[in-house]
Amino acid sequence: MSFTSVLAQSAVADLDTAERWYRVLFDRGPDARPMDGLLEWHLTGTAGVQVWRDADRAGSSTSVLGCDDLDAVAARLGAAGVEHGGPQPGGGARLLPLADPDGNRVVLTGR
């Protein structure tokens, strides 16, 4: 048996607010709305992020996403008003910890 895909998920209370934030993060709108209360961004052919309206679990998610130019992403997000402390060392790479409006952790990693 082998695993062939992954969808990281963030639970949010307000889907409209979350959609605005994740649009900025990914620099585009969602790729799919498979059902009421669910947004999806497809990052590669086999990996993506789901943003799911679930007020009871909102703010308790963590996603770690790799990117190829962490400095450029940090600059773009900062210019768009997303607060962060800039890239920092961690685990042999560099990390950019973020929090969505519900407090879900989104950690970008790269060199």
From the coordinates shown, what is the CATH architecture? Roll
- Enumerate how many helices there are, as a single number: 2
Distance between the termini: 32 Å
User: Strand tally, please?
Assistant: 8
Principal-axis shape equals globular
What is the level 1 CATH name? Alpha Beta
Entry keywords:
2,3-Dihydroxybiphenyl 1,2-Dioxygenase, domain 1; 111 residues; globular; 40% strand; four-stranded mixed beta sheet
Task: Describe this structure as you would to a colleague.
The chain is α/β, with parallel strands linked by helices and 111 residues long. The chain has a four-stranded mixed beta sheet, covered by helices on one side. The termini are far apart. 20% of the residues lie in helices and 40% in strands. The protein contains two helices and eight strands, in the order E-H-E-E-E-E-H-E-E-E. It has a single domain (6-110), classed as 2,3-Dihydroxybiphenyl 1,2-Dioxygenase, domain 1.
Topology:
Blueprint: E1 6-12, H1 15-26, E2 32-35, E3 38-42, E4 47-53, E5 62-66, H2 70-79, E6 88-90, E7 93-99, E8 105-110
Parallel strand pairs: 1-4, 5-8
Antiparallel strand pairs: 2-3, 3-4, 6-7, 7-8
